[in-house]
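Course assignment 3, question 2. Fill in each field.
Student: A.L.
Task: Predict the tertiary structure for the chain below.
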Amino acid sequence: MKSLKLAIYHGYELTGSGGNEYTRYLSRTLASLGHEVIVICAEPEPETFDFVRRVICHDADGTPTERFRRTGGSGRGVTVHQLPRASVFPVFITDQPRVGPVKPFSQLTDAELADYHQTMVSCVTRVLRDERPDILHANHLVYQPVVAAEACAAAGVPFYIVPHGSAIEYTITEDERYLRAAREGLLACSGVAWISREVRERVHGLYPDLIAEIEAKSEAIGIGTDTSLFAPLPRTERRASLDRLESLHVPGGKTPALRAELRDRLDAGEIEATRDYWTAYDHKLPDDDLPEILRRIPVDRDLLFFVGSMTWGKGIQSLIGALPGIVARRPDTHLVLVGSGTYREVLEGLIHSLVTQNEALFDALVAKGRDLESSPATGPLDDLAAHVSVPAQRAELFENGPALRGRVHILGRLDHAKLRCIFPCCRIGVFPSLVKEASPLVFAEAMANGVLPTGSYHSGLRDGLDDLRPHLPDEIWQHMKLEVDPARRIAAMADSLTALLEALEKQDLGPALRDVAERRFDWKSVAAELAEFATSMVV
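Answer field:
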């Protein structure tokens, strides 16, 4: 296959998870395979990534300025074009603190959207004319494909679309403007690359009259993980691995004093206090006392693990609700939570209410839970509300709640260099999302670590679980499917995770999971397939 000059239009940062992570690893891997890669994004510090060779900053008036160049090294590397800021920086969900005026797409005025559109079109058109790539890769359904349709037509460059889940879930289904705009992008593009069956089905559901036209130019590509970043760890090496993580620690994240202050305010009835911590500390860093937290994690016990954004939609509250029942049957069970987001304080409050058997606090948090994070979601925590509506389940939850003391370890945000030290120390990865997931990268990462992934049996998680069925014992696979129905979700999750912990005591699935990750989900195979698809559209 010939070498491509490929531009990737992402529009957001390269740090973090989801589409940011997808873009980061795809661009790096394509460059390592010999392709020339240009990334158009809003990453504020692209030079911190070792695969970035050149950074060009675009001013609001469209003037480009090279501000960084790295010499030496092997491979072609990646050129990053930094997008200018319009009057507002629109995002799908405001779950992460960002600098400057940030608003969800659904809350933009028509004037703000028009300004953003024109600013992006001008910049992307300039980049395409200057760089002359063979083709443009546009992430999501909006807003990149909308800009790409206009910019690529002006520059004479073909483009294809890679839809992800966030734009559909939080923007297109929320605002008719974006439903219409995404349609135009689908019609104008030369191809559509699917990362999962679930995303494909959702796009078909949005535009049933376009199914035949879309499918005529579509191909299933999937997602990848960099298996070289991770490796399974025998139990004898796990404490040393946490010691390495401790040695990498940079202080500056959430402090013990802030955690204690929140508990005191919640005990005093200040439910809205959770909002005061959205900007009270640096959410991009691990907790300030990470070394002390790590020393309290027993690596020879049953460790459950979650990594991802701390939002209501990730379903972490269900896992917390299930944990007392699991600990009652498996007293050595601990839970490690890695990630950041404005929902963290609600989760801390739920844990505190169970440990202290404060039913009034618990009920108040459940009743207002979705209102207490920075997102369009509102209303109660339906999963927990349904669970405690059954008297016997409510009694069991609070009877066993104190057992959570010292068994839930929230670390804050960790990059891959740090994540690789803790992830393989765990037995089970739990991804209990309530909202639809396109195809979470963390699912493949769990397998690369030799960790058994479990997830809600819907959307992209369902697809991932179905793909694993031929590779695992059926009695294991059945329990990996986490219940979706709110009425049974928490009790069923406790049963499934308990059964898996008992099964994993008798058999080691780590090597089999690692093998599947290497053969099916490594970024090199995914990037090569995507490059072949892109080449087919180049005239």
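Instructor remarks: DSSP finds 22 helices and 17 strands in the chain. The chain has two domains: 5-224+522-535, 234-520.
Grade: pending
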